[in-house]
Design brief:
single chain; alpha/beta; 23 helices; elongated; disordered N terminus; 8 strands
Length: 594
């Protein structure tokens, strides 16, 4: 069915992914209360966000992981089984007999099954025995769950224990991007200090069936709370406002995708054919599907935004004309009626654009589409961030408003399978070079070349109109100064009207050019054309066996451009530019950063 990946978990509607971390040795007497609270939590999410199907991602370990998976399946929710190592090796964690059979039965009921690869330098033999190497696999699972979920459900005693890959370590990583013993110092130095959406934890306090297993002081068993990194309210009874907004925006995306599903299917522009996806990596279809939806919606709301902008400026010209005519032609009342009519039309357009959030939706959906485009070609070429704790979505739009975190949340889902095991097919590099970078007639190179020429033409038109208007104005003023005293009244009035309308026309066109940031956008398109031209030249100089490494190095070579692009985004937003400008600038910042 449309919107389903090969593995069965939906791309659209975008799900609300709940990942599980928790203790294995839960206290038996608390189990009924824990189950009740897990069910209440999931039921509340379904009630709050009916457009976001809840999906649970669990490592299926004994204790908390399996308990939450059982409750999710009982509620009819989909479960993703994400295992820290191959299933046959992981099964050794479970006692032979009923416990192991229960684990295998949960695996069989999962909608999607993921086995994480061995960490660098690790092997099946090294991971078989308890100890550091096996713990690194659990740490990797905790990082993977944190990076690809929207809410981390923690069945946790609240104590900051030091076990690598343990519940406390996973919660700490989810909120602070740090896991001692697994994350590197370099990763810590690169950690963003800005708030984002990736810190949300739902905490069900529990005891452990061991000596000293009572919860952290100040916490009571079966108490629940939302945890974030908020300085003033890190622990709250209700879902924090900024996360509610993020989930509402994702719900809105799902509703728009459903409303326009038929048109999207008929008019979409996929990044690759199904045959290319099957040849490179079938899971590219998931990202491709998300891109097609976001791209179509972006174009749809772009058309509405541009139409509203153009109509409002045309109406502004007519309003000004009506006022000039009313002022200069014996104050005829029908010019006032005309002015009122144009004002009401402009008000209708502005209200429609505001109520439909056309401008914001275009900005959001274009930014999402460009993020998915880069995510797609990175996955096709096997490009990674080079950091075991970071994925394609982690550095996207970090310096923008936190509410744009919903875009990263979509990318967490679309890139799920491709992030498990990056492609090592050399054909993917050639595909990305051909389809993404392209040449002067195709790909991003061709796109930015065409846009540069197009924007240059618009800028020249604005300049010519301005010069013409000023020229006509100067001539009209000269005629009035020289011959105004002897001119017939009708001719003098006509010249004054001409002067006013020409100046008004120039002013409206200048205002439109300012709102669309014609000059700034022209420079940015030219810059991005040079970026992709440099990328193509770098790949052409690379040897075949080094092409992949060259492609990986290309985004890093543009990292020093990021500050300039961030400044361009900030300027565009400050100028209240239309969404086309801001979204394009965000997309360029993403490409340059990565």
């Amino acid at each position: 069915p449309q919107g389903e990946s090969a593995a069965g978990v939906p791309v659209t509607p975008v799900p609300l992914v709940v990942a599980v971390t928790g203790h294995r040795d839960l206290l038996a007497s608390e189990l009924p209360g824990i189950r009740e609270r897990v069910r209440a939590f999931m039921t509340d999410l379904e009630r709050r966000y009916p457009d976001l199907p809840v999906v649970v991602m669990s490592g299926l370990a004994a204790g908390a992981d399996s308990l939450v998976a059982e409750e999710a399946l009982a509620l009819g929710l989909k479960v993703i089984a994400a295992l820290p190592m191959p299933r046959n090796l992981y099964a050794e964690d479970f006692a032979a007999g009923a416990e192991r059979e229960h684990f295998l039965a949960l695996c069989a009921r999962a909608s999607e099954f993921i086995e994480l690869p061995f960490t660098p330098g690790n092997t099946a033999g090294l991971s078989r025995e308890p100890g550091y190497n096996r713990d690194r696999q659990y740490a990797q699972l905790g990082v993977f769950l944190s990076a690809h979920c929207h809410v981390l459900l923690a069945l946790w005693d609240g104590k900051q224990a030091g076990e690598l890959g343990g519940t406390a370590a996973v919660v700490n990583f989810h909120q602070n991007d740090m896991m001692p013993g697994y994350t590197s110092r370099a990763a810590a130095n690169q950690r963003m200090l800005a708030d984002d959406e990736s810190d949300l934890v739902y905490h069900i306090v529990c005891s452990r069936g061991r000596p000293g297993g009572t919860p952290q002081d100040g916490l009571a068993p079966l108490e629940t709370a939302w945890l974030t990194t908020d300085e003033y309210a890190p622990r709250t009874a209700d879902l924090p406002l900024r996360h509610r907004l993020i989930f509402e925006r994702t719900s809105e995306f799902n509703r728009d995708a459903r409303r326009h599903a038929d048109s999207i299917e008929e008019q979409k522009y996929p990044l690759c054919s199904d045959a290319d996806a099957d040849r490179l990596n079938p899971e590219l279809r998931r990202i491709n599907e998300g891109f097609c939806i976001a791209d179509w919606l972006a174009i749809h709301y772009q058309k509405r935004t541009v139409l509203a902008l153009r109509v409002s400026h045309v109406l502004a010209f007519f309003m000004g004309s009506m006022f000039i005519l009313y002022s200069d032609l014996d104050t005829l009342d029908y010019f006032l009626y005309g002015l009122l009519g144009f004002v009401l039309l402009a008000l209708i357009v502005l209200v429609a654009a505001s109520r439909g959030a056309w401008h914001r939706k275009y900005l959001d959906y274009r930014a999402l589409a460009e993020g998915l485009r880069v995510q797609f070609f990175w996955a096709a070429a096997g490009v990674t961030s080079g950091n075991v704790t970071k994925f394609a979505h982690d550095n996207f739009l970090q310096k923008q408003d936190v509410e744009l975190g919903w875009i990263r949340n979509v990318m967490r889902v679309t890139g799920l399978r491709c992030d498990v095991e990056p492609s090592d097919d050399p054909g993917g590099v050639a595909f990305a070079r051909r389809e993404w970078i392209g040449d002067d007639g195709s790909g991003q190179l061709g796109y930015y070349r065409r846009k540069s020429v197009e924007r240059l033409g618009r800028h020249k038109l604005t300049s010519k109109l301005e010069i013409t208007s000023m020229g006509v104005g100067a001539i009209t003023i000269a005629l009035l100064l020289l011959f105004g005293s002897v001119m017939p009244d009708a001719l003098r009035n006509a010249l004054i009207l001409t002067l006013g309308i020409m100046l008004l026309l120039a002013g409206v066109r200048q205002a439109y050019a300012h709102r669309t940031a014609e000059s700034e956008l022209m420079k940015q398109y030219e810059f991005m054309y040079r970026v992709f031209r440099s990328a193509r030249r770098s790949l052409e100089l690379a040897q075949d066996d080094a092409a992949k490494e060259a492609l990986k190095d290309v985004p890093k070579a543009f990292a020093d451009r990021k500050a300039a692009l961030d400044a361009a985004v900030t300027k565009a937003e400050a100028d209240n530019a239309p969404s086309e400008v801001v979204a394009a600038a965000i997309g360029r910042a993403w490409v340059a950063l990565r």
